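Section 3.1 - Work completed
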Amino acid sequence: MSDGEKNLDLSKLVTVAERADELSASVVVSVLEDAGIRAVATGGFTSGFRAEAPGMVKIKTFEQDADRARQVIAEIKMDPPVFDD
């Protein structure tokens, strides 16, 4: 096992964002991956349940990438584009 593999074994995943549905979470994961940050969305199966406290889809990255991931997420514009006629 290489040192890089050992470091990954010791890495901890942390939640850097939450979204209400799998589609929104997938967009965030894709943006993070485009920025070179490995990310995963968890909790998609339970996010659709409608109980007193609906579930959220969590976006997780390795702990050492969390700050950078949060910066990338903060830069995402979720507003629809404005078209001039």
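Second construct:
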Amino acid sequence: MVFITLLPLMWQSCDDLYGPRKESTPVVVTATIAPSSFTFGDSVMLSATITDPSTMLTSLHYEVISDGRTVATGEIPLNGDTAVINTPLFVPLLSNQADNAKTEVHLIVRNVLKGVVTHQITGLTAHRPVYDRLFLVTDNGTVAVLDAGAGNHNKYTGSGLTLDPAFRYRIAERLHTDGTIDFSGDVYGNVNGRVAMIGKNGESAFIYTPDADYTKTITFDHTAFTVTAVGDKLGADDLALSAFGNQDIDNESFRTLTRTLEKEKTYTLFGVLADAMNVYNPDFFARVSASKVKFLGETGDYTLYFNPVRKNIFVGVANPSYPDYLLACGWGLGYPTRVSSAEISSVYPGRQRTHTSWGFGNVMNYVLLRRIGDGIYQGTFYTPGDQDHYAGFKPFENTGWANEKKAGAFTFTGEQIISGDNDWIIPNGANDPIVESAHYRFTINLKNNTVHIEKTTI
């Protein structure tokens, strides 16, 4: 008797949950795609009205099929016995996809009792996108322009490049004014080890140019979705990281190269060294183009120091001393950089844009001033420190403690940021005005004992 009593209750429970327990088939009342002619890489709007006469709907599965290839699939959850759908469907471009492709959207609708109906939206045409040019953007921000071949919008080539032999990249249709990718346009990257269309969170692709010091030509086959590269070897006047070694200095990682540099000679930069964010010490280099610098110092042997975190390049010499150089050490000076103190300290905790200290133990303890005339020396530094707006330092003639240049011996012109009679002080006392932390150029004239200070833009 108990079993007989419970059975109707169970039956009633199913009716409450699913509606009347009766087999039924969903009905696609209307289903359209707009526009009917579109470009691969765009989204189209699926509009549909679906009902079920007897039970609840559960899901709508769709497949976008172009020239017999499934290019997109997805699932849209449904509930109730009527569904009104207006949703965008992204239609990607696949490799070797034909132009003006006959396209259909297949719909499969299900209800909770496994009732199924299929529906096809036909009469659609999909076109391959056409670009005048594309932009290859490496993960470190270098941009290379890829131009369409004459009369051929299926291959895009960048020539005369100075990229590294190995790098990660994306290829974009559009860029923002700052050179970053505008994801409102088409973007290509890595999908399961192959080049394909990606969204904002998609992975970068990787390329390696074997047996080369740098990559000089990139070709993107937009039909096959392949990228090929041609490389070359460095010349005597070329600078690339492949020639640099590794060195830890003052608990920071540097790339270093010792070589002869010639006065007024122009050197070509390759790969990471050509990054627009990099600052070449303006007292020793003039950046004449995106990939070229001119050396301003005297001809001789130098060590180039590249800090990948600070993104700056400066030079050092063995036993720098007067009359070729002055050296400034103490607190609150730093070689020029566009990288913020926050970014630096995120890699090297506690570090700032400024890095000098009292001493000559390594090239981070002091900064060089170059002789630019008879008894005249120039140094461009970031000062004072962001964290305390204080600096206290002195120029010296060598890496000893003698022959220092005391502040009281000079007349200061330009930016009036230095005080003190002995150390060159940028004060931060309670009653002192806060000196802006910025790049300043110091010109020290030992002939007339003057120092001109001007704020400068890096």
